[in-house]
Amino acid sequence: MESVLSVLYQFGTNAAFLLLSAIGLIVILGMMNIINLAHGELMMIGAYVASFLYHSGVPFAACVVASFLALALAGVVLERLLIRRFYGRELQALVVTWGVSLILAQGMLLLFGPFLASIPIPFGSGAVGAFSFSWYWIALIAISLLLVAGLWFLYYRTAFGLRARATMQEREMARALGVRTGRVYMLTFALGSGLAGLAGALMAPTTTIAPYMGQQYVAPAFITVVTGGSANVIAGALGSTGFLSLAETPFTIWFGTFIGIVAMLLASLVLIRLLPKGLSEWIQRRWLS
Amino acid sequence: MSEESNDENKIEKITNEVDSNVDRESGEIPELGLSRRDFLKGASGVVAGSMIGGGMLIKGAPAIAAPESKTVDIGFIEDLSGNLAIYGLQKYHAAQLAVAEINQGLTLAGGPVGVGGFASMGQQAKKPPLVKLNPGSGEIETVDDGGDATESGILYGEADDILIDSGEKGLLGKEVNLMAPDGQSNNRLWQQLSRKLIQQDKVDVLVAGFTSAEREAIRPIVDRSKQLYFYTNQYEGGVADEFTFCTGAVCEQQVIPVVQYMVENYGPRGFTIAADYNFGQLTAAWVRAYTPLVGGEIVGEEFVPLSVSQFSQVISKVQSAKPDWVMTLLVGQNQSNYYPQAAAAGLKFPMASTINMAQGYEHLRFNTPSLARMHNAVNYMAEIPTARNKAFVKRFFKMFPKDPYLGQMAQNTYFSIHLYAKAVRLAGTTDQETVRKVLESGWVVEAPEGAVFLEPGTHHASHYIRMAKADEDHNISFVRDWPTIEAWWLQRLGVNLVRHPEHKQYTPQEDQFFPMLQKMASK
User: Fold this and answer.
1) Does B281 reach chain A within 8 Å, measured CB to CB?
2) Domain count, chain B
3) Which of A218, B190, B247, B274 is the most buried (most CB within 10 A)?
4) A134 and B304: CB-CB below 8 Å?
């Protein structure tokens, strides 16, 4: 019983880590097809906002919401100034966002030094027999699922979602039908960076809040989104986090952390070889259509 | 900045420098040839007349010197930006402090036998004092003084003022200049920068390197140019290089004390979590080899890639192994996340390390009690409550009031630069070969940690090792002292760079000693 719970917990935390790393990128890369290398830095700024607010007495939950709003606003600015000039030019967008990431990380180092005060992990620990765990990670698992559900609702059950999906699939046609595509792009980018900020704030207590902290999330985020594919980004992200943690968790238990990571990367490699359009295309074909 | 310059120590200092020359002359100086004469010629400039007795004539053989430079240039590479900036900035600031002091006419006490102190029986407190650093004021505050002096023991006196008058501003009449480009945590850039400093700027000495990867990236360049090089980091050990001086602590100085302390105080079963690269692997090999010798066993090992920042699986593994203590050899800011995550998951095992707290000041960065029960055999932490260290910490934070901490490698950098200056002053020249020979004469420098001896044959330093322990509030106490631990492993391998120059790094795999220990342990 204890060991079953322990394995489930390990699986859940691995999946939640991938999902939270990827949540903003699901929108920006998965939907808008912008290779956003500044994704990690957006998460970093989310954590910075949370840390500043937390240490000026704001409750942690409010800090997380504030990080979402602040980063959504920053996303609007970034999109208006830079990103909108690079729609449909993926490689140029890649270079530009890489430049943005360098400026943001080094700028934070110059402005605030190598570290910011950390946030204590809320909720403390629980135990079942000899197996003890952190309630906060349980909360993160639940929150990451809620976020994906919310994203699904927004894109598949609201008028905004319909217009957004139309814009991403057939921009000219959507515009001809009266959709203000420029605005849809702006709002989508703002949502993506807001979610990155929110995820950064949620991760903040578990990590060192530092200028280069974003780097740890970039690779997992890209692997998750690319393995998921873009046919249905939300189903894809859910499927790929489940699939990748399913590969990682047992190999880590048996052979150690390094082999666990190798197993995860191999799994995504094999999957992309077999399903070049990602997991979501297969899910779509199999179950959703 | 430092008003501590004091004239009364002048006499002591001169005595030391004179002593050092006498020792040099009567001692053995094999295979020095031409450069020996250069050395003596140079030395005469500083302590003129004090060395006539040796029967040496000073003549001829002009130094093969590079075009006269108006400054003494110290090439200094550390990571001032990027992932490792947290360590690089501390080291850079410590180097700036050392250079400023040299230019003001100050030096650290020291010489071939060091200053020494007297010891006597006396009464001391039962417990070590509990202290904490206040970076704002640069004060080391005493939280608990350990109680009344009721225990008897040997009390050892060491000089409180280690910063003494050097007799000149700068070095050999020149200003000391720190050339410090930013390595940006990027190994390839490190190679370019070291090439530029060595070949173009022709620096007189190179002080550089945080990670072993950085050091190994630039060491071939150093060797090709015969560049005098100081590596000031704590590291895994084994570098035997004619041109490299390693002034940080190595495995034999830290691993054995910490493992012994953990087994004695918490029980035999240890679990190692280590960063999965050069440093972590080799240090874990030392832990594995030595734990059985002190009556313990390593019940599990987990190597974690540097990119990992999420530790719930590692934490579960440690839990299921049920160790008595956990050895954490975690490197970099991603991996330091282990501590708060483990605390939040309810892990309460005592922890041991050779790096954490002393380098990345995790005890000040993370919320209490993430680092509670952490033990580290350090050669330096800013909290060391001795008078000489308190003065050093004050000087540092006066110069850099916004800095968060002053760590192990910053202190190593500081005394290494002072040591270099002392050697140049004695040599009377910045000619690198001559300075290298002088450094190989058995120096003791009075560092903030205590007396440090630079062993000539291996180019490694002995250190004053203290067992630092963090409590629930992250206050520090030093629960055991080893006033001198030598870096003996290269000596065991027969390395003597004075007689047999070499340029390599030894690993435990090359020493049958380690398999032997393993075999003994398995019996």
Assistant:
1) no
2) 2
3) B247
4) no
Same-domain pairing of B341 and B415: no
> What is the per-residue pLDDT across B11-67, written as a single tens digit (0 to 9) for each?
344 334 433 333 333 334 333 334 444 444 444 444 443 333 333 333 344 444 445
A38 found inside a domain: yes
pLDDT band at B468 (very low <50, low <70, confident <90, very high): very high
Look up residue B326 and give its amino acid. Answer: V
User: CB-based contact (8 Å) between B399 and chain A?
Assistant: no
Cβ contact, residue pair B312, A134, below 8 Å: yes
Whether residue B335 is found in the same domain as residue B218: no
User: Tokens 């390593």, residue?
Assistant: B298
- CB distance A113–B337 less than 8 Å? no
Shortest Cα–Cα distance, B259 to chain A (Å): 23
Q: How many CB pairs under 8 A join A and B?
A: 117
Shortest Cα–Cα distance, B313 to chain A (Å):
6
Residues B400 and B318 in one domain: no
ipTM of the complex: 0.80
Range of the domain at A96: 2-214
CATH of the domain at B445: 3.40.50.2300
Same domain, B219 and B75: yes
Provide the whole-model pTM: 0.79
Site from A112, A128, A208, A249 to mutate, B interface, most B CB atoms within 10 angstroms: A208
Considering the domain boundaries, does residue A247 fall inside one?
no
B413: domain range?
A: 7-62+70-114+161-249+384-504
pLDDT per residue over A137-188, tens digit each? 999 999 999 999 999 999 889 988 888 888 888 888 888 888 888 888 899 9
CB pair distance less than 8 Å for B347 and A216: no
User: Residues B96, B216: one domain?
Assistant: yes
Q: Is A127 on the interface with B (CB under 8 A)?
A: yes
Q: Does residue B310 sit at the A interface (CB-CB below 8 Å)?
A: yes
Q: Say if A98 falls within a structural domain.
A: yes
